[in-house]
């Protein structure tokens, strides 16, 4: 019986530590960048082309525009992804856009909210693409999960940008 009490106490302490981690580190922020061997105008056009999203965003299925004019500030869309056979929907709102320079969006899902910015700058005829992300869990459990798995989000963004680079550099469509 004494061992059961010790085991339960250890489990309770670990659970409390898990919850505290979400309060201590309630947000995850990271930056990524990549250089693309194409001009800014073409790089921008490829990132805005809905037909090419599945080439660089894993699991991307479709976008449904909810309100506003697509590609403008205030436009709201539901973005559908499939992950391990499960469909996930993320609500996207464009918060700022400067064509051929940057786009900022907020994303809402059941698990977390995210602020995302992608910026493009010309460097000797090439394009430097930079992303900046801040994500926070929507509840106590998801905030705690974010504290432990936040690094995987940056790793996924680096993978996405590598795929975006390949998609842009292999582009043959004339915009």
Summarize the structure.
It contains four helices and seven strands; from the N terminus they run αβααββββββα. It is α+β, with helices and mostly antiparallel strands.
* Low-pLDDT residue intervals, each spanning 5 or more residues: none
The SSE order reads: HEHHEEEEEEH
Radius of gyration: 20 Å
Would you tell me which CATH topology applies? Alpha-D-Glucose-1,6-Bisphosphate, Chain A, domain 4
Overall pLDDT level: 90
Q: Give the CATH level 1 class.
A: Alpha Beta
Number of helices: 4
User: Distance N terminus to C terminus?
Assistant: 73 Å
Number of strands: 7
CATH H-tier superfamily: START domain
For the biggest sheet, the summary is: 7 strands, antiparallel
Q: Proportion of β residues?
A: 35-45%
* Oligomeric assembly: single chain
Estimate nothing, just give the exact number of structural domains.
1
**Strand sequence of the main sheet, in spatial order?**
1-7-6-5-4-3-2
Shape: elongated
How would you classify the helix and strand content by structural class?
alpha+beta
Helix content: 25-40%
The CATH architecture: 2-Layer Sandwich
Verbal overview:
InterPro entries: Polyketide_cyclase/dehydratase (IPR019587), START-like_dom_sf (IPR023393). Pfam families: Polyketide_cyc2. With 175 residues, the chain is of the alpha+beta class. It has one domain (29-169): Alpha-D-Glucose-1,6-Bisphosphate, Chain A, domain 4 (2-Layer Sandwich). The protein has four helices and seven strands; from the N terminus they run H-E-H-H-E-E-E-E-E-E-H. It has helices spanning 2-24, 40-48, 53-56, 140-169, and strands at residues 27-36, 60-67, 76-83, 86-98, 102-108, 112-123, 126-137. It has a seven-stranded antiparallel β-sheet with strand order 1-7-6-5-4-3-2. Helix 1 packs across helix 4 and helix 2 (40-48) crosses helix 4 (140-169). The radius of gyration is 20 Å and the shape is elongated. The mean pLDDT is 90.
